[in-house]
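User: Predict the structure for this protein chain, please.
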Amino acid sequence: MRYRAWCGLAVGLLLTATSVVACSSDDESAEGSPVARDDGPNKKPGSATEVNLPTLSRLTVDELQLTVPLIAGMNENAQWIQWLVNKGAGPVDAYSNEGLGKMMGRPDFVAVTNEATAPDTLYVKFARDMAREVCQSIRKSDETRSGNFTLWSQAPVDSAASDDEITNNLNRLILRFLGLRLQAGDDLLETYRQVYLAARGSATDSDAQKNGWQGVCMALFQDPAFYLH
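Assistant: Here is the predicted structure, written as C-alpha cells:
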C-alpha cells in the first residue's frame, strides 16, 4: 500500500534521508523497528507489547523507469517524457544501465544479484534531480499545448485561478502522482496548497502560476507516498 507523508510545508521539496524514514501514515510507522502498543485495561503497569511493523521499501530502478514516464505523460512530439542525462554521444534514459541505473542499484546479476530497496541519501538525491528535470520537461510540453495540460488541467494560468480551481487541480495532481482521492480540507491537500502558494509567490501572472504547479510536481515526485511501499 501507499503511505501518506505528513512532513509539513516542505513535503517533497526539502526531503532528507531522515525525513524519508520518519514520515508515516496515519496509523502505521515507517520504521521496521518494534514499537510499543498500549494493550488497554489488561496491560500490566509499566509493561508494553512490542509489535514488529514491516519495513518500507523504495521503488526499484525498473519500477521507476516504467512509472515516471506514465505519470509525466507525452511531450509535444508524442514521445514519453523521461528523465534524461547526458552520456557520451547524447542524452540517455537516466534509469537505463547506460545512464545511472547501475549507480542507483539495479543488479547486474554478476556481482550484484539483488537490489537494495532501503531508501538512502543517494536515492533521495536522485529523486530530487529527477523531479527537477522531469517537471521542467512537463512544463515545457504543457506550454506548447492549447489544452489537455498535465500540470494545470483544472486551473487557468493565463488568468488568476480561484481557490476552487486550485483545489480541483491539486486533487487531480495528487490522484495522478499518488493515487489518492482526497476530501476537501484533507491535511495532505492543504499541505500541497501551501507548496503551490510558496512556489508561486505573491504574483499571479502566468509564469508565477506555472511556477506554482511546477513546484507541486517536484514535491509530488519526491513525496515518500510516491516511491515507498
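Helices lie at 17-22, 61-72, 121-143, 163-178, 187-200, 206-222, 224-227.
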